[in-house]
Specification:
The chain has 237 residues and is mostly helical. The protein is built from eight helices and two strands; from the N terminus they run αββααααααα.
């Protein structure tokens, strides 16, 4: 009755809708984080601690729980695909923004406003892309390794252990590439630590939402359908 090889299970319509929705949220957060970071610098005062961070920090931070949820429910490969989809959104933004610059404005003020909000500083763009690729791939890899170590238990530990280290990698690479020789070394180090501290706070706060997301997706289903995309080759750097 045909080939004796086991068929690779296909994604249901529900699974596909979930992955597309999470991928859309992920890409939107990446694009917004880049735009917001160039427009506003925020200050968080938490008692004796003052955190000075780009406004895009919160938007960027929610990308990590998204990949953790996908990693937990669907496995490592779909999470990597979402990371690369986010990269495509980021690159697409930097291609489309200059095209919008070419559209004649109704007034000079509009043109200046567009340039002020959207014109990228390419060193910051480079730092953003490098930090994004390295930290997001590390997060997917680390989450999966922690899953193996904990035998699928302690989601809170896997989520925070992978995310907190990945956020340190992200903050270090971005700040070093974007601001070395632009700012004194002491300020670059301070920026790294400040951004990392803010991201840790967001990472700890999002843990209940990771549990909620996993529960909403898996309720009424058998756990861990990771083999679904196991025969698809993952993109590599």
């Amino acid at each position: 009755m045909g080939s004796s090889e086991a068929k690779t299970p296909t994604l249901s319509d529900r699974d596909l809708a979930i992955l597309l929705t999470l991928s859309g949220l992920f890409g939107g957060a990446i694009v917004l984080a880049n735009i917001m970071a160039g427009v506003k610098i925020g200050v968080w005062k938490l008692g004796f601690l003052t955190l000075v961070v780009p406004a895009g920090t919160v938007a960027y931070s929610i990308t990590f729980p998204i990949t953790d949820i996908v990693d937990e429910v669907y496995g490592k490969r779909p999470a990597i695909y979402i990371v690369w989809g986010g990269l495509a959104a980021e690159l697409g933004m930097f291609i489309l923004i200059p095209l919008g610059q070419l559209v004649p404005a109704l007034s000079e003020e509009m043109q200046e406003l567009y340039s002020r909000v959207f014109s990228p500083q390419y060193r910051i763009v480079l730092g953003s892309i490098v930090a994004y690729l390295v930290s997001q791939h590390h997060d997917v890899w680390a989450f999966w390794k922690w899953r193996e170590v904990t035998h699928g238990k302690w989601l809170w530990l896997r989520n925070n252990a992978s995310t907190i280290v990945s956020q340190l990698i992200d903050s270090t690479l971005f700040s070093t590439i974007a601001f070395t020789s632009v700012l004194p070394a002491s300020q670059v180090v301070s920026m790294i630590l400040t951004m990392w501290a803010a991201k840790i706070i967001v990472a700890l706060a999002d843990t209940p939402f990771v549990y909620l997301g996993v529960w909403l997706i898996t309720r009424g289903q058998k756990p861990a359908p990771q083999p679904r995309l196991s025969k698809v080759a993952a993109p590599t750097l």
